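Researcher: I'd like a structural prediction for the single chain below. Treat it as a standalone chain; there are no partners to consider.
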Amino acid sequence: MDDRWDRDVLGPLQAYMRIPNVSPAFDPAWEAHGHMAAATELVRSWCEARPIDGLQVEVLELAGRTPVVLCEIPATEPALADDTVLLYGHLDKQPEMAGWRDGLGPWEPVIEGDLLYGRGGADDGYAVFSAFSAIEALRDAGGSHARLLVLVEASEESGSPDLPAHLDALGDRLGQVSLVVGLDSGAATYDRLWVTTSLRGVLMATVRVDVLEEGVHSGSAGGVVPSSFRILRRLLDRIEDADTGRVLLEELWSEVPPEREAQLAANAEQIVGGMAFPWAGGTQPDHADAVDLLRARTWAPSIATIAVDGFPPADRAGNVLRPFTELMLSCRLAPTADPTAAAEALVRSLTADPPCGATVTVSVRGAEQGWNAPATAPWLQDAVDEASQAHWGQPSAAMGEGGTIPFMAMLGAQFPDAQFLITGVLGPGSNAHGPNEFLHLPMAHRITAAVSHVLDAHARR
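Model: Treating it as a single chain, here is the predicted structure.
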């Protein structure tokens, strides 16, 4: 598999990483800028050139929507023609982010040892290259597979707002999907195959507090005009305990199923031990117990302030009482929480009876359902265990993820009897969305081999 990656994947993947095709939420003028089109064309042309009999590749386009690359590969045997495996990835990226260390940058890939640095290689540009490499390796070895669809979307980092329209337009073309392979997830360690069993939902919203029509001298207004930031602090106390970080809105929570609770207990020490965050100074996590920490990361909601508006830069700040403060909140929802109910609860809590009669405006930017995997079929459990032993020399393990892949919830609703293999390369230190993101190349090679193994097992089940 290493030779296949070196020969067919590394060059095109690095070319893809050089394209600054950030997701539409971060580049509203994405059509005019052309980066998304360039990335789509690179993926389309590479896929179309694969030496696979019967391969069909097309770019699906809808007005005002990001494109989807859809590749169809016929089953190796007529008896498998009506059974479909859907392999998923995305080609849009997060913004570049500040803080890349010397010698690294978001749009220039750099290989250091086993690590390929740059934005979008691990999240999730490698996925389409890995999927096709797995398929080609399987066919070269004489293995079998059902009808395969490789779907690569371009709005995942914005919450996949364009994907439902594409799925509606596809209609029955997806066929009867019995297995979904998603390569956009993480791994607690690099020493085994990790299978994702749950994903949190996400609720994005802005909250703005206005107290003045324009800024005024803080000497004359201080003590008379309430601070918009102070009012925002009070509002945030309605939805989150400032001491513990516990979310106070019941609608963002859901009960942890017994099977997931058992997995938390079984794997917490290993998963938490592998977490690698760039802590500043003596910063400590909110929980000391490993199980509590893992539960908080995967089955409890959380709220993060990810952007602020209304503040001038520190070196340009006048002695002025500002007219407004606006925050963007990223709320992670428990996997089975209702995102609509969560959004309604957030708006209701923040806007009711505002302190000092200030004007409070809450705008929901998106609310996406989380996902809890169905019970794993024996054939799939056997296949992932065999693949992990064969390619890592260790048994496979299960974990919940704190992030969101909206497509999984969409497919889970559309194909309730399908099995899911959700995995990925985002292990300790890979830092997706942040500076110094890297793709762990040996992990990518082994996941590619594991997917090949599972596709064959699916056909022979």
